[in-house]
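=== Structure Prediction Worksheet ===
Name of assembly: unnamed complex
Input type: mixed (protein and possibly other molecules)
Chain count: two
Listed entries:
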Amino acid sequence: MVLAYPFLALLHAIYSLVILSISFFRHLTRQTPSPLHATRRRLPKHLSIIFVSDEDFEEQTNEYCITESIHRAISWCQQLGIPQLSVYDAEGIILNNAEAIREAVVPESRVKDSELDRRHIHYPPTPPLSDYSESEPLSPKGVSNSHGAFLSFCISPIQSASRASKKPHSLTLNVLSRETSKPSIASTARAIARTERRNYKAHNVRDTFELSVNSLESCLEGKNGLSPPDLMIIHPVHPSKYHRSPIELHGYPPWQIRLTEIYCNRFRKQYEARLMWFLPLHVSSTLLSSSLTEWEFREAVDQFATAEFRLGR
Amino acid sequence: MESLVLISSSVFQFLQWILAQLRITRLAQRSLLRVLAAGPIPQHVGFVMDGNRRYARGKGKLVQEGHGDGYLALRRVLEICLRLNIRCVSVYAFAIDNFKRPQQEVDALMQLAESKLLELCSHGDLLQEYGVKLNVIGRRTLFPDSVQAAVCKAEDLTKGNNRSILNVCMPYSSRDEMTTAVEDCIREALAKDVDYFTADDPIEGITEDTIDSHLMSVKRGSPPLDILIRTSGVKRLSDFMLWQCCENTQLHFSNTYWPDFGLFDFVPIIFEWQKSVWFRRQDVLFGGSSAS
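=== Predicted Assembly ===
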């Protein structure tokens, strides 16, 4: 058993070398993704981005990279006509900066209402009917709506869109946090239970409570809920550290990700990271932290366009 | 050119035959696994066994044969996992949505499930040899009666085992599992009355932990999911263990079709796990001191 450890170390060394050469080969043979405005077979209707920050590093770098990425993503989505964008991070950095982001993307926001206040986030008290319309018009001019445990604002279309052939689209931006995830399912459960108890008391009959997948779905995804994203980009702010381990979902709302295509660029800044191995981790990571690039975005949209959906069949 | 390929392939086959005779590959595999098991090992690994039909089509086989080969791959991978001392293995065998497939294929899959479950659990076979308890997780009532009976019998045969757990998820969907968990939580809360002295409302006690503990797989003793592997190059979760894998679970999307999945696809994943555990420890050791 004692002999096993040196062997294991040797195997790991060989494995690292193999991985290094494979990734070098892939780097040489990688394909340039199609340009942003290329016609694709399919476009996501709802794009979601998970930002992975690291508390070990400066908060400012995290905030700056994430905010810049969101601004870029908004502009790409508007150019391509993706109607819904959700941004998520587990630490709540986006939520803390939501006001700043909103002011930047909704220039005519004269309304300084307190709806952004997190205390006002409410959960649907009763299970809404199973209407699945999410395209219903939100408030017209960038007024923030507080939905079930997440923030959502409507961004009006850019006027200066050079491509006059397509009509400009408005974009809904959802700001999600860990609260939108499992806690939101738990609070929906509490809301359903309260309604059920009220019904018992009103009619004084007790039959076994039953819940179907569809009714829970309409509570979580319906009127005040979050619709499932078609495509998800995982964007680590500090790729050099993150890429040492496989991808994770960092507590993204579980109910919605059933059919979501997951994308993560594992090669971003890999070479720079390898060259800076001798630097202390916090130095190299600050140097290497970066925002979402157009390359990644195009690659992700390409991946989605070529994906095959069989839905169990 | 063709003759060259023929000769080289026959030489290769001959070499393989010699190796098989000497049982060298088997020996090498076992020692490799023993070496691997010396490092950190995940507790719970999940597999989405995807690609049986594409594999069969690629090889010019029938779809049913593809599923048969998929079963062999399951045995192979399961043995690897058990040799590595992984405590719990979950496999996605049949989705509720799979009932939408052609009737012929569904029937063949039902037959396969019925016969192979009993085979796996029978005396002296894999599960008994390694002391594995079988759990069939999902909405079983959707199965035909004969399969339901086989499932009960198979579970009964292994209920005394406690070294490891095999969760066979069929007919399963994660949304169904979550809904059932929520339903159970609500039922329990409604059955209890409000304690007016302490103002302890059981409904307000429903939290994410309550739901987690009511999930079918957790109720049957599964530890948190550490690794999720999806084969055949699809980068989606397709309604498998969404609640369990959305946090602290490493996701791997392998390009191999499931029937081809083997040791050399699995070992790199274990390497990655070990690396991440070691780095995490290093961060705990050195990261804390540099931050202060």
